Amino acid sequence: MMMFTVLDLSFNEIRVIPDLSHLTQLQELYVANNKLTHITGIAALSTLKKLDLGANRIRVIEGLDNLYDLEQLWLGKNKITQIQVCMFASSRTLPTSMAPCMGLEALAKLKIISVQSNRLVSIENLDANANLQEVYLSHNGIAAIQNISHLSKLLILDLGANRIPRIPDMASLQSLEDLWLNDNQVATFDDLVHLTSTTSLQTLYLERNPLASYVCFDVADMFSHIAYISCCHAFKGKVVVY
Length: 242
Known about the structure:
- This protein is about 5% helix and about 15% strand.
- By secondary structure, the protein is mostly beta strands.
């Protein structure tokens, strides 16, 4: 049996992941920047801890339901519309649209998930992932911050470049340190009130929101406990650092 623990197949124009079931000790797999449309060939990799499938053509998260030890899942720059795991979606006998799907229950050990630059419109199906520490969902079409109040271990939440107009109560995220809300539709200081109770927050990005046309110092006064605040309207504008 092969004893590889790390395998990098990135930048190879791969269209189908070959059967890797013989790599029984594999812990990290990189298949980024290829031409994958489906996730296949990895269902037996029960020891896998990190999976990078970024920059492919994947539409459905599938075939991960046996990866119980997975801690990092990187899926940025694909065509994914929902955060869910589908089983056998690539089967020749079952259309992708009819594949049985569920949340990420099987990935209970997941600590990092990145679905940046995809086609998401909502945050969902993270109910069983209370161990998440980093969530990257920037550059999608998400219109609301929801279904994350149970993520008490969350350290980093990146929701930049979405369509979010309001910020809900986030008091339950008492471990949150970095919050990216740049390039959204947050319009007034009233929308920021709920963040004042998140006392662990150290870094807050608000630039290129409608409220960014206000004076940055007003935001800084509201969040005196935050070490770094970026809220300027223009990219080359001033950045307030406290």
